[in-house]
Amino acid sequence: MRSAVDELISPHPLGERMPSVYTDDDFTQRFTRALDEVIAPVFTVLDCFAAYLDPRLAPADFVDWLAGWVALDLDESWSAAQRRELVARAVHLHRFRGTRRGLAEHVWLLTGGRVDIADSGGTSVSTRPEGPIPGSSPAHVLIRIRVPNPEAVDRARITAAVRRMVPAHVATTIEVTT
Prior knowledge:
InterPro entries: Tail_protein_I (IPR006521), Unchr_phage_tail-like (IPR011748). This is Phage tail protein. The protein has helices at residues 20-23, 26-47, 49-52, 60-69, 80-88, 90-95, 100-111, 155-165; strands at residues 114-119, 140-146, 171-177. It is of the alpha+beta class. Helix 4 (60-69) packs parallel to helix 5 and helix 7 (100-111) packs antiparallel against helix 8. The chain starts with 19 loop residues before the first helix and ends with a strand. The chain is elongated and about 90 Å long. It folds into two domains: 26-95, no CATH class; 98-124 and 137-178, GMP Synthetase, Chain A, domain 3 (2-Layer Sandwich), CATH 3.30.300. The protein is built from eight helices and three strands; from the N terminus they run H-H-H-H-H-H-H-E-E-H-E. It has a three-stranded mixed sheet, covered by helices on one side.
């Protein structure tokens, strides 16, 4: 969490901007110095505001807040680098949400491995309203992740992330191999 910076000097001291009648008044100068201590961090944030909006430069706790702006649900167990990259690419990932490509890119960002996806695919239709749905196999997605060290991949974390990305009725299987 961010906090005040000790000995931060205000770039615009209030005491220097007072009318000349107050420049020699000790109380006014002490009072405005106290206000400068309160206002200096605000100036610092405003001067660096563009950096706060870039997830690669923003403070770590602000990245989580930015994730809410881009409708991204971050898992606290992901590393700071992964969370920053996901927020930075959120708009791009939203374009492909619900697609094989979007799922593959999301899993790749979390694991760094090669991702192959096989799904049952397609759409089922019926010529009669409220008729039986054609086909017999339920929707299923098989995700194969190839990484140098499969033991280093947190399967529970990846499974939870995948479950958030696929429709609720779709069964998923995740295989992590070398």
